[in-house]
Request: fold
Amino acid sequence: MLTAALTLAVSGCQGGEGTQTPDGRSPSAGESAPGSHILAVKIDNVAPARPQTGLEKADIVYVEQVEAGLSRILAVYSSQLPPVVGPVRSARESDLELLRQFDRPTLAFSGAQTKLLPLIEAAPVDALPPEKAPDAYFRSRDRAAPHNLYLRPERALHDPPGVNAAKYAGFGFGPPPPGGRPVTEYSVRYPAARFGFTWSAARQQWLVAMDGAPSRTPAGRQLGAATVVVQYVTVRPSRFHDRGGNTSPYTETVGSGTALVLRNGKAHEAQWERGNAESGTAFTTPDGRSMAFVSGQIWIVYAPR
Reply:
């Protein structure tokens, strides 16, 4: 059962810093480690899947729109691993472009539609569905399928955690830029999903709500992000459909555009640019300076332009 699995303990370890990855890639923040140190998990995000498990331990939480206007989460882990993550759900084509910046990370997902599987196999990720690692997954008796598939991360990675995935992707941490406007609440809406972020001075975090309700861990603590990035992107129809015939959206993460960075109780206008799929995303202030984030978990919400 899930409650029993949550009694497991897995501790993360911190790795050293370097100037290049083994293949010559040079992340702007200087973190260095093979991509196998990084684990990305596709996580369910409809009401029967909540509360999600292990989300609070992710370095980066990506939010994207999926079929029927709903949302799904791609959580990226490296600096620490929770004992259990989930519920795990299916991958999307957009995930493959997004994850290329991490140099062949492990992608844990429940499955994918038949036509997408060859693209996943050809992509530079270590694809890890349940059939490839049955010992890493289990079904909880606490929920009904398909919202009850969970991953034990320590059985999914070839190597232990070593770096912060956000630093590996090139994100910088430091003091805020001048200016910004005071903001206590901000929300992002999809056609059938809504995310809210409320500033907590006591916790120095943006408390997360989904569809109007506080997002909590299984222990009851509300999820909180040190930095929230609302990144305005092109979301277009893909060539794939779900079982109900709904077109799968494709979120374009290569290109450029505007963003809003929430940190320290303020909202800062920003620009984003990602030249190619192998590079990370650079966020800059309107005057061209690098946008620094607060040390801690980052939520990146992909919002349609």
Summary: Residues 1-30 have pLDDT under 50 and may be disordered. The longest strand covers residues 255-263.
